[in-house]
Amino acid sequence: MSEIPAYTTREIIKNVEGCAIFTVPNDVDQSLIDTLTAQICQYAATHALCGLIVDFSSLKAANSRLIQSLARLVQAIELLGIPVRLTGIPAGIASALALMDTDIDGIEIRSTIDRCLAELRPGSAGRPA
Amino acid sequence: MDTDSFEKYEQNPINQLWDDILFLPIVGMVDSARAQDIMDVMLEMAERTGARFAILDIRGVSVVDSAVANHIIKITKSTRLLGCTTILTGVTPAVAQSLVNLGIDLGDIATSAQVRDALKLAFNELGYVIHQQTSA
């Protein structure tokens, strides 16, 4: 059994003006994502967040199962009443996921972190002031 | 750019039509290999430009059957993963009828008959307003 790398919440989540940015580590696997999901949910429940941005730009490879796990993370955070945006999915991974028919319906994806922030920050279009 | 990439872009001439809007007219047959090339050029361009919309014009596609429709669905899904929404345009009455008769569900893919309508839709979503200048 492979050992799960230790990540502290400080390492994986940045807080930008009340918006949490979670950068998916490039060595993420199924076991790690389960651990991270618990940490991020805990973080979301204990901070007044206007949104969570999941940034995939460090990711080198992904399979359908991993993306489904990340989709469950998104659902869990949304159940806490926090809007979520995904960004930074590399073109190669996007192509592979589309060919595998990965279900991503209902998940909001934006091309850059700036666009996510622009939508999620309080007072921006579509968000309460 | 290597020879393969050059050929891909030559056969699938994608352009940045406006800020945040890509345009790709498809002419000829679309088989699995061609669909993969189209997906590659669209994803490369969407990643490079950060475009929010891609207009895919299929008016020049000779046959649109269930296989081609499935390729198009996969292309739109892949660009969506980069935050780029694909608008399918050039849907002729015959193609529309054929898709319905084949029972193909394009899901939530935005479609239009004319490129002009697709561009209007993208402008609207991006908050662009076109004004005609009045002459003095």
What is the fold's blueprint, element by element?
The complex is a heterodimer of chains A (129) and B (136).
Chain A lengths: L8 H4 E4 L2 E5 L6 H17 L4 E5 L8 H16 L4 E4 L3 H9 L13 H8 L9
Parallel strand pairs in A: 2-3, 3-4
Antiparallel strand pairs in A: 1-2
Chain B lengths: L2 H9 L3 E4 L2 E8 L3 H18 L3 E9 L4 H15 L4 E5 L3 H9 L8 E3 L2 H12 L10
Parallel strand pairs in B: 2-3, 3-4, 4-5
Antiparallel strand pairs in B: 1-2
Helix pairs in contact in B: 2-3
Structure explained in plain terms:
- The complex is a heterodimer of chains A (129) and B (136).
- Chain A has a single domain (16-120), classed as Transcription Regulator spoIIAA, CATH 3.30.750.24.
- Helices cover 42% and strands 14% of the residues of chain A.
- Chain A has helices spanning 9-12, 30-46, 64-79, 91-99, 113-120; strands at residues 13-16, 19-23, 51-55, 84-87.
- In chain A, strands 1-2-3-4 form a four-stranded mixed beta sheet.
- In chain A, α3 (64-79) links the parallel β3 and β4.
- Chain A starts with 8 loop residues before the first helix and ends in a 9-residue tail after the last helix.
- The model of chain A has no long low-confidence stretch (mean pLDDT 82).
- Chain B has one domain (3-126): STAS domain (Transcription Regulator spoIIAA).
- Helix content of chain B is 46%, strand content 21%.
- Chain B has helices at residues 3-11, 32-49, 66-80, 93-101, 115-126; strands at residues 15-18, 21-28, 53-61, 85-89, 110-112.
- Chain B is globular and about 50 Å long.
- The termini of chain B are far apart.
- The interface between A and B is medium-sized, with 19 and 19 residues.
